[in-house]
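Can you make up a protein sequence with its backbone structure tokens?

===
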Amino acid sequence: MIARVWAPKAQTVACVVGGVPHPMTAGEGGWFAGPELSAGDDYAFSLDGNDPLPDPRSAWQPHGVHGPSRAFDAAAHDWSDGAWTGLDARGAVTYEVHVGTFTPGGTLDSAIAALPRLAEAGIQMIELMPLSAFPGERGWGYDGVAPFSVHDVYGGPAALQRFVDAAHGHGLGVTLDIVYNHLGPDGNYLFQYGPYFTDKHETPWGWAVNLDQEGSAEVRRYIVDNALRWFADFHIDALRLDAVHALQDDSPVHLLAELSDAVAALADEQGRPLSLVAESDLNDPAMVTPTAVGGLGMTAQWNDDFHHALHAYLTGERHGYYVDFGPVEVLDHVLRSVFFHDGTFSTFRGKTWGAPVADAVDRLRFVVCASNHDQVGNRAIGDRPSATLSPGAQAASLALVLLSPFTPMLFMGEEYGERAPFQFFTDHDEPLGTAVTEGRTAEFSEHGWADLYGEEVQVPDPQDPQTFENSRIHPDDLDDVQVALRRWFGAVMAARADLTDEAWNAIPATAAEIAPRQLMVSGPVAVYANLSDAPMPVPGSAVRAVFGRIDASEYGHVLAPGSVAIA
């Protein structure tokens, strides 16, 4: 393979291989080429005679984010998934995983052993949190600096190919979480190569990625090439795009629309569905509107309003962005209309927010959950809902997510009520490490966290290795309640499997209380959740499954306190 790099800021570039610099040939548009590299070669680029830097398109950083890159031959893997016809993200029961805390081994290869369990449970799509190389060994991955790479601690790029191949063999699709809205800061050398960033726009991470200023054509190409590479070379089925509202782009064609069209062309070429799932807090249906009619063309998008409505209803929390959520009427609105803030005033934001979703828009284009890495990990102590919710409330949560009209997503361990927290952990060098620790503590000194937990909040130190260890899940060490929840999960999944994707939109879902904390959600499958201390009447007799106890009566059935039924 020929070494190539875009370095328009440099007059000369040398590719350093084994400590020996090899002058590269300048081409058009700031590109430099040469020499020939073999798989396994460690190399770096010296710009204008300065210290060597990692390749912006590095596939592998075995020496860390500051060290040389390693050449990787993506064509060397002998794929065994020839019979795999693909999986559309819409409607696929998705399972979000952090590779490092998913198994004791914390690698992609060790995660392969868990695939049969997930496939047998009815999971259809594994969503991997970001894998790009990031500083140190431990982290969530959203501070990655080498978007084309796979973190060496997880096994490197070859391990990802093995994982995807194995997943397809078990009938599971794979979604890869990708961060295009920022990089770094630790180990981010892109600004030394070219105009990858611009101060025209600001993001929560500082300067924005340059999508619409001078030099942006190659930056856009960098992102599009990256996305296509995961589909083509790693057989990924879907990409989850992190915080796309931070991709600020005033170009005539937004980057997301350009990316959507490029992925659609590759899907036609490969003959399998390839999906783009956007994380966006804009509450704008244009995100999933086809590019042919002026939309951004995403296959699906996350719907945080569903999470907020369900979480606030079940827990009673009203702090921060939960302030407008909680009543059953809000949950009902979300089930009917997708977004709660769909052109209404958001108290948390202090402004009118969102836009309505037309009835004709497929509800499977909206991904919903009761837990994910953000909603758990960005709490002060990383506590899951299972830490405080009753078993009945957890059972209700599973049923309401999985039997909603939307595309459901679970966070690893949620199917059995995992109680280990998922905390924020990092492994930065100093002084950044101390700054992260102090910043995390300061962040949670406000916002009512002490009131929520009923005591002074002791925020886990992100830099402490024990914070990472505390976040590991334990699927093989379950108590009686967790065994019952896992059994209930199986019953709910069986009810879901009886229906086609089209059926989810055929009967509108609604939510109401027949008495305080006695929830009735209608839809293709009805859910009755008795979260009160009194018996709850359940009409009819066609009860599919029960968590807890239900008794026959002249009326139909009576659901015991703390019990949930589907019918």
Summary: The radius of gyration is 24 Å. The domain at 94-311+355-384+406-472 is CATH 3.20.20.80 (TIM Barrel). The longest strand covers residues 197-203. The chain has a mean pLDDT of 96.
